[in-house]
Amino acid sequence: MEIKKVAVLGAGAMGHGIAQVAAMSGMEVNLRDISDEFLQAGIEKIKWSLDKMAQKGKISQEEADAALRRVKKFVSLADAVKDVDFVIEAIPEKLDLKKETFREVDKNAPKHAILASNTSALPISEMASATTRPERVVGMHFFNPPQLMRLVEVIKGDKTSDEVVRITAELAKKWGKEPVIVNKDVPGFIANRCTITGSNLVHWMVYNGEYTVEEVDAAAIHKAGMPMGMFGLLDYTGIDIAYSVSKFMQEREPGFKMSPLLEEKVKKGELGVKTGKGFYEYPDKKWVPLDLPLEKAEKFDPFIPTYVGINVAAELIRNGVATRDDIDKALKLGFNLPMGFLEIADSLGIDVVVQKLKEISAKYGPFYKPSPLLEEMVKKGELGQKTKKGFYTYE
Ligand SMILES: NC(=O)c1ccc[n+]([C@@H]2O[C@H](COP(=O)([O-])OP(=O)(O)OC[C@H]3O[C@@H](n4cnc5c(N)ncnc54)[C@H](O)[C@@H]3O)[C@@H](O)[C@H]2O)c1
Hints:
Elements: E1 5-9, H1 13-24, E2 28-32, H2 36-55, H3 61-69, E3 71-74, H4 77-81, E4 86-89, H5 95-108, E5 114-117, H6 124-128, E6 137-142, E7 151-156, H7 162-174, E8 178-182, H8 191-207, H9 213-224, H10 230-237, H11 239-252, H12 260-267, H13 304-318, H14 324-335, H15 341-348, H16 350-364, H17 372-379
Parallel strand pairs: 1-2, 1-4, 2-3, 4-5, 5-6, 7-8
Antiparallel strand pairs: 6-7
Helix pairs in contact: 1-2, 2-3, 8-11, 8-13, 8-14, 11-12, 13-15, 13-16, 15-16, 16-17
The chain binds nicotinamide-adenine-dinucleotide.
C-alpha cells in the first residue's frame, strides 16, 4: 500500500507542523480545522516556516511554494478524509473528542486508510475502539516542533496490525523522520516515560527539603554538563507542560505519584520564563543563563534521574515494549542528548546503577526497585564497558 495523500486534523501547534513535513515530502495534504480562521492561522505558520527554510538555503523558494500549494484547507471533516490513504489527528488532548473524531473519520475515510493519533498520552486502543477498523489505528507521536524534531514514536494499540505499524514507520521515514516502535501502549511511550519518572523523584527530593533548586542545578551544570540545569530547563520550556505530562502519568501509571512541586507553581501562575517567574526570576521574560557557584554542586548527585530512567528503560526491554536501540535513539533524538540512557548505564556500570537504585528505593519506596533485568545482568557479570558487555558489547 502506497501512501500518496494524507489528511491532518487540527491546524494548531502540532498539526500545522505535521502538515508541513508531509507536504515537503511531496504528498498532497488535506488540513482540517473547525473554522476557517484556525485554518488560515495554521497556513500562515506553514508559510512562515517554509519561507524561513528557503531563506536559510535548506530548500529552494520554488520547493517552499510548491509544498505550500500541496496543503488544502478543509472545514468539513467528511470532505477532508474522503479520498486519503492516511489520516493523522492533532486535535486537543481530550479522549471524548478524539473518540468522536475517530468515529466520524471511520465513517468517511476509504476502507484502506490508516487512522493515526498524535496523542501524547491517551490510549490508542480506546480511540481504535470507536472505529470499525481497530487494526488500522496506530499512534504516531511527533515531538515539538515537528518540522525540526526528528523523532517519531509509532505506537501499537491492542489490535493494531504489524503491517500498519510498518507502513506508519515507513511513512515517518519518507517525511524525513526517525521512527521508533512502541510495541505496547504504555503511558509516556519511550522518551517521556524514561525521563519523567526520574525528574519526578528529584521534584520530590526538593519538595521534601533534601536539596535546594540551586543545589540540583549547580550539580547538573557543573557535574553533568546540562547547560540549563534541571529547573532552569523547566523554566525555559514551561512548568505547565511538564506538569501536564506528570499529571497524565499519575492518572495512568500505577505507582507513579506526582510530586506537588510543579502543581504549586502552576497554581501560582509561575510557569517559568514566559511569565517572568518560575523556579528563578526573569524580569524581562527572557531566558538568562544560570550563574551558580561550584560549591553548590557538591551535595546533589546529578545522575539520580538517570539511574531511575535507566531502570524504566530496562523494564521497557524486559516487557517487550521497545528495543535497546530504539530506546537510546528515542532519548537522543527526543531530548538532544549525546548518549542514550542504556549507553550511559554501560559507562556508569550496571552494578553501580543497581546499587544506587537500591539506595533510592530504600528511601523512596518499591516503585524505584532495580529492574530484574538489571539484577540479572549483575549476576551474569555483564556490568557494561568495564566487563566489555552490558546493554552493548565492547571490543
Ligand atoms: N504541543 C506539544 O508539544 C505536543 C507534542 C506532542 C504531541 N502533542 C499532541 O498533539 C495534539 C495537538 O496538540 P497541539 O499542541 O497541537 O494543540 P493545539 O491546541 O495547538 O491545536 C489543536 C487544534 O485542533 C483544532 N481542533 C479542535 N477540535 C478539532 C476537530 N474536531 N477537528 C479538527 N481540529 C480541531 C483546534 O482548533 C486547534 O487548532 C494533542 O493530542 C497533544 O497532546 C502535543
